[in-house]
Write a structure and sequence with these properties.
Blueprint: H1 3-23, E1 32-37, E2 40-45, E3 49-54, E4 68-74, E5 77-82, H2 84-89, E6 100-104, E7 112-116, E8 118-123, E9 129-134, E10 141-147, E11 153-157, H3 159-164, H4 166-169
Parallel strand pairs: 2-11, 5-7
Antiparallel strand pairs: 1-2, 1-8, 3-6, 4-5, 6-7, 9-10, 10-11
Length: 174
């Protein structure tokens, strides 16, 4: 079996588990979704995302910053699609079969999504070690970092910090 089909099956199982949790009326399982944004492994709180989708048609908007990719129609609702990798590292997120859209939950903001290069899987902070070093003030990352048992460094997405940032709130070119 090819690595790509194994990854696709794994991503499908994650999506099914998230959907099943919603169907039975339960909250999303406690924990984080591990994703790749730019060159970083990033943990996204499951309570801050409502859904993950394969990449769909994104309609470009003129005169906006490069990280604002445009808008997409998700079941009749327009979502603003952002590339956080460009905001953090000025590198365009590769749109491939493993790329996904993460829709932010209504508790964070309305009709906003962002692109991730790929989903890695569900993660729990209890299974990771808090690192002593902290990162500089990033537009959307918390200062603490974690390390998993495979010695990978994990950053935490701070959705609240992201949507309150002036950079994110003003995607148009001035």
């Amino acid at each position: 079996m090819s690595k790509q089909s194994q990854l696709r099956e794994y991503q499908t199982s994650i999506l099914e588990r998230l959907e099943n949790a919603k169907k039975v009326g339960a909250e999303a399982p406690a924990g984080y979704l591990g994703v790749v944004i730019g060159s970083k492994n990033v943990l996204v709180n499951l309570k801050e995302i409502s859904e993950t989708l394969p990449i769909i048609d994104i309609h470009r908007i003129p005169i906006v910053k490069p990280w604002f990719l445009g808008v997409a129609n998700v079941r009749g609702v327009l979502y603003a699609i952002n590339d956080i990798g460009q905001m953090l590292e000025s590198t365009f997120t590769s749109i491939s079969s493993s790329a996904r859209l993460l829709l932010l939950s209504q508790s964070v903001t309305t009709n906003v999504a962002f692109v991730v290069e790929k989903m890695i899987g569900l993660r729990k902070l209890e299974e990771m070690k808090l690192r002593e070093d902290v990162i500089d003030d990033e537009i959307c990352l918390k200062s603490q970092t974690y390390q998993d048992d495979e010695n990978r460094i994990w950053y935490m997405l701070d959705c609240d910090k992201l949507i309150r940032s002036k950079e994110f709130a003003t995607p148009y070119m001035i």
